[in-house]
Design a protein that fits this description.
By secondary structure, the chain is mainly alpha-helical. The protein contains two helices and no strands.
């Protein structure tokens, strides 16, 4: 009796036939939208942090007289 170590998904990983997911395009679009939203939130967070740092820098410049 020969035991097969390959799983059903091994063929997919090796470029074999994939089962078609009818919602694959929709899922991919939702995933892309989620990535875009996360990127926008990350950029907003860092822009806010940089603005706070600039306020702090300006306060130091004012104290020092630069």
């Amino acid at each position: 009796m020969k035991k097969s170590w390959a799983t059903k998904d091994m063929g997919k990983m090796l470029g074999g036939d994939e089962e078609k997911d009818p919602d694959a395009a929709k899922k991919e679009e939702e995933r892309q939208e989620a990535l875009r939203q996360e990127e926008e939130e990350r950029k907003a967070k860092y822009a806010k942090m940089e603005a706070e740092r600039e306020v702090m820098r300006q306060g130091i410049r004012d104290k020092v007289g630069i």
